[in-house]
Amino acid sequence: MNTCEKVRKQLSMLLYGELSFDEEETVDAHLEGCAECRTALERERVLHAAFDQAEIEAPASVLWESRQNLQRQIAAEHTPIHRVSWWDRFLDTAWLKPVGGLALLTIGFMAARLAPSLVPGLGLGVTGMSLMDPGAQRVRSVEPGPNGGVQIVLDETRQRTVSGGLDDQNIRVLLLSAAKDPSDPGLRYETVGILNDRAQAAEVRDTLIYALEHDENAGVRLKAMDGLKPFVRQPEVRKALSGVLLSDGNPGMRTQAIDLLTQGVGEGTGNTTGNALDRDMIGTLQELMNHENNAYVRQRGERVLQLVNASRDTY
Amino acid sequence: MKLRIANLLMATAVVVVVQKASAQEAPVVREGAYWVGSIGDSFGIAPQARLQVNTRGNVTVRREAGDQVTYRVRQRVRAANEDQARTLLGGGVRQVSSVRGRVVLELQPISAGIVKTDIEIGVPTQVSTVIIQTDLGGIDVAEFDGAVQLRTGGGDIQLGKIGGTVQCFSGAGEVIIERAGGAINCTTAGGNMAVRDAGSSVALSNQMGGNIRVDKAAGEVRAHSAQGMIEVGQAGGAVFADTQGGFIQVGSARGVQAESMAGTVRVKNDEGPMNLAAMAGNILAELLNGARMQDSSLVAGTGDITVLIPSNLAVSVIARNSTGGTPRIVSDFPEIRVTPSKFFQAPMVGQGSLNGGGPVLNLNVSSGVIYLRRK
Question: Is residue A296 situated within a structural domain?
Answer without folding.
Answer: yes
